[in-house]
Every structure is written in structure tokens, then in C-alpha cells.
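Appendix B, example 12.
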Amino acid sequence: MQQLPLDENQAQLLDAIAGEMILRWLRDGTVISANSILCEYLGTTEKDLRENLYFAYVFDQDHARLMEYISTFSQQDSRKSIDYRLITKNSDVQWMNWRDYYHYNSDLQRYEFLSIGHNISESSISFSMVNYIEKFDR
């Protein structure tokens, strides 16, 4: 049996254990790979996702902020997180939290992002409700 590269092994493990969405991509939005959870969430296949730029799934109002965010990564500053909205398969707009790791792929001699994300829309709504209730009670 042929051994998968480490990145794919890690993605499969996280996919199976944590149920997280996993995306490998380049700074220009080119998708290298995505796990089945992210593809299902976006209502697409990995092949179709690779044929489009990842930015096509980012909510328009968050695009500029995401572009600024990814421009701040460097070899010395390679781990960050961000919340932004994605457009899902049902054309719903959902808040996501992404933990991003910017690393050098020596086999391909390029820098890549490994992003691990999950939907935070419900927790965002819950947090907003708590803030509203706190203001109302004052």
C-alpha cells in the first residue's frame, strides 16, 4: 500500500475525528485540495472547487478583508485565525472561523495555506443574543 503525503494523512485524520472543513490553497485563491466536508458544505466537488478560485465562495463584503489578511502572512508570521462568511450550497451566508497555517511545500517549492475551519453562525447568533439581552436588562 502506497503511503499518502503527510498533509493528506493529516487532512483525513482531522476529517474523520474532528469533522472540520479542510482546505489547502495558494495566496491567489487557487485550490489545491479540499476535504469532503467542505465540498459538501459548499455544494460542490473537489474537482469543481479546484477549477474555481476559492474567493468565489467568499461573501462579497468580506473579500477585501480576507485579501488584506492573507497578505500579512510571512515565514515568520505563519499562523493566524479569522472569521468571515462563505456562501453555501443553498446560497445561505454562514460565518466561518478559520485557523490558517502558511507553510513552505519543499516538494513543489511554493508557499501554501492549510486552513481548518468550522461554522460559527449559530455561536455568532447566540453571542449576539446574549449581548442584546444584556443591553435590554440594563
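The radius of gyration is 16 Å. The chain has a mean pLDDT of 84.
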